[in-house]
Amino acid sequence: MTYSGNRRLGDLFSSRREKGRPGLPTLSVTLNDGLVNREDLDRKQETNLAPEEHLLVKPGDIAYNMMRMWQGAFGLANGQGLVSPAYVILRPKAVDPRYASYWFKTKRMLYLFWAYSYGLTDDRLRLYFPDFARIPCQVPQIEVQQQVANCLEVWERSIETVEHLIRGARRQKRALVQRLLPRPHTPKTAHAGWNLVRLEDVVAFNPRKSKRPEDGRVSFLAMESVSEDGHVIRPTERQYDDVCTGYSAFQDADILVAKITPCFENGKGALVMGLTNGIGFGSTEFHVLRPRGDVYAGLIKHIVGSREFRLRGKSEMEGSAGQKRISSSFIRSFRFMCPQTQAQQKEVADLLDLADLEIHVFEDCRASLVKEFGALRERLCYDARYNSHLVHEAFV
After folding, report:
1. Which segments within 132-193 are labelled E, that is strand?
2. Are strands 34-37 and 27-30 parallel, antiparallel or unpaired?
3. Residues of the chain with pLDDT under 50
4. Which of 40, 39, 31 has the alpha carbon at shortest distance from 65?
5. Nearest-angstrom CA–CA distance, 181 and 229
6. Which pTM was predicted?
7. Strand 217-221, strand 279-282: pairing
């Protein structure tokens, strides 16, 4: 690779300070999505500023948040828009803006943005343009920059395609739940052969601890050991005597439901299986539900993971802001329609398990792509050993 000499970012960018004008969308910088329309944000951000008091961004400009640039809070503009006057607008002079948007996300550049920011603590750091302009850099020739940007765009489109598949699979799962698990208030003729039951009728809550196994080995699950898609991950093996006090107890086929926000809202919980000696202990921030009677455990897992259960539970959380918890009284009183036989229950649960498996496969694929994309971005933007032949290989 041929670099165009030792330079500073001020050689590659100038600062645009043009006033905004009416009729353009107001944009905000986000950490994960770059520049987005302010109206599309979940948390609405109102402003009393007139359009002329905003700054104008044009296609190819990069806008960054001075206080969070060291965390990667910037975005590449695809069209004209208005941004906060507290942002810095970079106008590329001698660099491909697409390449720069990938380059700025590399570990080396994020470190330099932090190193050239000023403030007493990290939450007060600011990177003003004169300091940004002093940052030393090396960049490849413009033709190589374009090749790198083209390559990384292909990878990003692949990730977006998988994300689209994940959203589709989740919509399909929600539709399947609505079809297979009728709500209690639907007409009785719509669910003949089903019984209306409460959870407290079919599960025991937070049961007593199991007996100590002969070899003393048990599984231990911290809150982070349970994924938000209902899988148990990274369980550790501990000694019964070390964890039998101060932790929640459970066994194979028990169902965990997170108590706290946002874990409960995001669906964190699992049907636990494969525990060491069939016994486990874990975070006290889980409710433990032990199926009893004739209801299949796999079906109960889908009931407490359903959108209806989560939305209603969220509205009935108790406690102060930031520390709200789902109460056991809500879980006990939750009613649902249940097929009369375990064979029917298992059939419903198996179909929903297949839908979950599809989502899980897509999510694993996305995670792998994101990891490989990050490594490729680091190499193509910084590894002086690569050449255009390796850029071509990255497409294959």
Report:
1. 136-137
2. antiparallel
3. 1-3, 189, 384-387
4. 31
5. 19
6. 0.79
7. parallel
Place of tokens 């982070």: 224
User: Residue 255 is inside which H or E element, if any?
Assistant: strand 255-258
String of DSSP letters for 199-241 = HHHHEEESPPPPPPPTT-EEEEE-GGGB-TTS-B-S-EEEEHH
Question: In angstroms, rounded to a whole number, what is the distance separating the alpha carbons of residues 347 and 148?
Answer: 50
Tokens for 9, please give them.
Answer: 């970012």
Q: Which residue has the tokens 């990050």?
A: 374
DSSP 226: B
Other beta carbons within 10 angstroms of residue 347's beta carbon come to 14
How far, in Å, CA of 156 to CA of 153, rounded?
5
Strand partners, 82: 26, 56
DSSP 126: B
Quick: pLDDT tens for 15-67. Answer: 999 999 999 999 999 998 899 998 877 665 666 788 898 999 999 999 999 99
Domains of the chain listed by start with CATH number: 7-139 (3.90.220.20), 142-180+344-396 (1.10.287), 194-339 (3.90.220.20)
**257-273 confidence digits (pLDDT tens):** 888 877 887 778 888 88
